[in-house]
Amino acid sequence: MNLLYASFRYPPALGGAELHLHELARRMQARGHAVEVVAQTTRELGDVAAAAALRAERARTYEHEGVPVRIPGRSPWLRARAAPWVWGHRRGGAIARVASARLTALLAPSCRRALAAGAAPPDVVHASRGGYGFLAEAALAHARALGRPFVFTRLRHHVDRDPQRARYDRLAREADAVVALTEHEREVLVERVGVAPERVHVTGVGPVLAEKADVPAFRRSLGLDAPYVLFVGRQVPSKGIEALLGAAIRVWRERPEVHFVFVGPPTRHGRRQFARHRDARVHDLGAVDLDTKTAALAGCELLCLPSRKESFGGVLTEAWSFAKPVVAARMGAFESVVEDGRTGRLVDPAPGPLADAILALLRSPAEAHALGRAGQALAGERYGWDRLAARTEAVYASVL
After folding, report:
1. Quick check: helix, strand or coil at residue 232?
2. How many angstroms separate the CA atoms of 243 and 355, rounded?
3. What domains sit in the chain, N to C, each tagged with a CATH number?
4. Residues 6+ apart with CB under 8 A from 175
5. Are strands 177-180 and 150-153 parallel, antiparallel or unpaired?
6. Of the four listed, 40, 150, 262, 348, which is most buried by Cβ atoms within 10 Å?
7. Rounded distance, CA 9 to CA 84, Å?
8. pLDDT in the model for residue 70
9. Residue 126, helix vs strand vs coil
10. d(Cα 215, Cα 353) in Å, to the nearest integer?
C-alpha cells in the first residue's frame, strides 16, 4: 500500500502524538508499505493556532529516520491575512468558531498542495490529529477528491466547551475508519460523537525508547544519588504538574530524601509552577532527547501522571517496559489502560491523593515491584509495536 499520513506536528518535535505516528510510519515501512508524511511544523509550540498561521515555516521536504516528510510552508502574505483570525481564535466562544473556520479556509490550499505532491497517489490517507484541524480537513478533502479512503486518529480530548470539538466530531463521523486508542475513547466516539460502531477500531500506543538506558550517566548529569519520582509530559495545565509539585511537599514530610524529576517540553505555565516551588529536590529538565528520557524512566522509583486529560498516555507503556509502577489520575483514558491495584494505582489528581499513593509505593517495595511486573506483562502482550502495526494494517485493509 501507498500510505499518506497527515499530522500537525512531526519529529524532531517531541510529543507523544508525534512519536507514536513516527514509530507507526517506520513499522509500516518495515512491513513493505510506501509511506509519506505531510506535517505543518516540526517545532515545539505553545499557542498552536498562532503557530499554525503565523510562525514562519518555509516549504521544504526532509527525511526523519528514513521517513519522507513534506512541510507546506506559509508565506508572509498568508501570515498577514491570518493574523486577525488568530486574534479572534484566542477570544473563545462563537468568535473562536468563526475564526477557526476562516483560518482553515486560508491554510487549506497550501495543505492540499503539499498532500498532492507525493511520488504516487495514496491508497489510504490517514490524518493523525495533533494540534488544530487545518491539515486534517485538507487531508479529508484530498482523499475524497482521489476517491481514496480516509482514516482518522482523533487524539483529542472530548471537552464540551472546546470550540474545536464540532470540527473533530465531524471529521470522525465522515471518516471511513476511526482509530481509537482506548475502549473509553471508542465509547465516546460511538455514544457522544455518533460514529458508527463498526467504523471504530481500538489499537493503542506502544513504547518509544532508546536501545540502551544509561542510568548512571543520567544520575551523574543531575548529581542525583537519591530515589526519584518521574513525570513525563508537556508542561500544560491539563497535565497536572502543579498537583504533583504540591504532592512533593507532602511526600517530603515523611521521605525528605525523595527527588522529583520532570521531563517534557516547557511552557509559560510550567515555568510559573517551578518558580513557585523552588527546591533542590525538584529537577525541571524540559525537552530531552530519547536517550535521556529512556534513562530517566529506567532509573525512577515510579512514574506519576496526574493528567486530567489524555488520549492514552504512551509513557505508561514505556515505564512498564522497565517494570516500573505507575500512579495515574483516575480519568477515562487511564482507566482503560491501567487496572487499579494490579498494574498501577489510580487516584484523584490532587496533591493529597497523589502523595498518599506515592508514599504507599515507597513504603512497600514488594507492591511496587508487583505492579511494575504486571504492567510489563500487559505492555508486552497488548502494546508491542508489531501487534499495533498489524492492527493498524487491518484497519487499512478494512477500508480498502
Report:
1. strand
2. 10
3. 2-206+384-399 (3.40.50.2000), 215-382 (3.40.50.2000)
4. 140, 150, 151, 152, 195, 199
5. parallel
6. 40
7. 23
8. 94
9. strand
10. 29
Q: Measured between alpha carbons, how far is residue 200 from residues 60, 132, 179, 399 in Å?
A: 34, 22, 6, 11
The H-assigned helical ranges of the chain are 16-30, 48-54, 76-91, 93-115, 134-146, 165-174, 183-188, 215-222, 241-254, 268-276, 290-299, 315-321, 332-337, 351-363, 365-382, 385-399
Find the DSSP H helices in 31-133.
Answer: 48-54, 76-91, 93-115
- In one letter, which amino acid is 225? D
Give the global pTM.
Answer: 0.90
Predicted local distance difference test score (pLDDT) of residue 154: 86
| Cell numbers that stand for 230 in this block | 518521574
Rounded Cα distance between 28 and 301, Å, is 34
| 202/249 Cα distance (integer angstroms) | 39
Cβ 361 vs Cβ 371: under 8 Å: yes
Q: Which three cell numbers stand for residue 329?
A: 489520575
Q: Which three cell numbers stand for residue 225?
A: 544519588
pLDDT tens for residues 327-382?
999 998 999 999 999 999 999 999 999 999 999 999 999 999 999 999 999 999 99
280 secondary structure, DSSP code = T
State the 10-residue block means of pLDDT for the chain, 400 residues long. Answer: 93 84 96 94 61 65 95 80 76 74 81 88 89 80 96 74 73 95 94 95 94 96 96 92 97 98 92 93 94 97 94 94 98 94 97 98 97 97 95 96
pLDDT digits (tens, 9 = 90+) for 301-336: 999 999 998 889 999 999 999 999 999 999 989 999
